[in-house]
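Annotated sample (chain length 279).
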Amino acid sequence: MPLPLKPGYNFNFARIRRPPHYEMSSAEAYTDFYGISYMISGERLIYGPDYTTLTQAGELNCIPRYEYRRTTYISDTPYEHILIKFTDSMVAELFGIIGSDSYEELCQEHVIRFEQHTQDKIYGILLEMEQEWNAYSQYSELLLKGLLNQLIITCLQEHIISDVKVLSLEKRHDCLANAIKYVKSHLRENPSLNTTARQINISPSYLSRIFVTYLHTPFSTFVLNEKMAYAQKLLVHSKLSMTEVAIEAGFSSSSYFSDCFRHNTGMSPLQFRRENGAV
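Output written by the structure step:
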């Protein structure tokens, strides 16, 4: 789960550098705020509730509210990206002019690509944001709002729709994409390697191998991480009991769920629910 915005702030800027083989242990949750991520170097595999795709240097992701997403490495090189988070108030005027649907359409593209000159323009806007964020004053939110509006308008006007081949995982490896989709839609059933392989018409050994090759994680670890991410979502956004959450997320018992949850997050499911304002 990402850190929430600071109290009293409607915007956050972070330049993030990660070493080779960095992998998120659980999904990020974008609750009542939006996000924009810009890749400076390296490449990452991103998978959300209903998509899987690849993002590379010079590409941008618009992230809607109430989305859960994870990324993992696919190469032996470090990567660097800029991540900004913002609330409705930062884009209310802009959305009043262009409509929130325009931003949602950018989100639905998952990966947004640009010509080199536009990449330079976008990075320039982000550098201005970084400078203003690092010298934050009483006027900074207003200035950051203007830069954010400029960034979104630039994306809408200058992104590439059909000129560049989409490097989505579905095109690069249908088997893995189909396996991920099956697992996500059958978490309640605690999908096994054999069952998943049978559903997508490949052998269990081959399925196991492509998970390790492309996601650098065993199939069983992937399933557990997805169950944990879904359980976190249920804890925050539903009023289900702990037993009901355990069942919906595919755990065999509430005690096993509690043990796994504490091992992965360092807190009990109830503590997690309280700390995220759901109780």
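Annotation: The radius of gyration is 20 Å.
Annotation: The longest strand covers residues 11-18.
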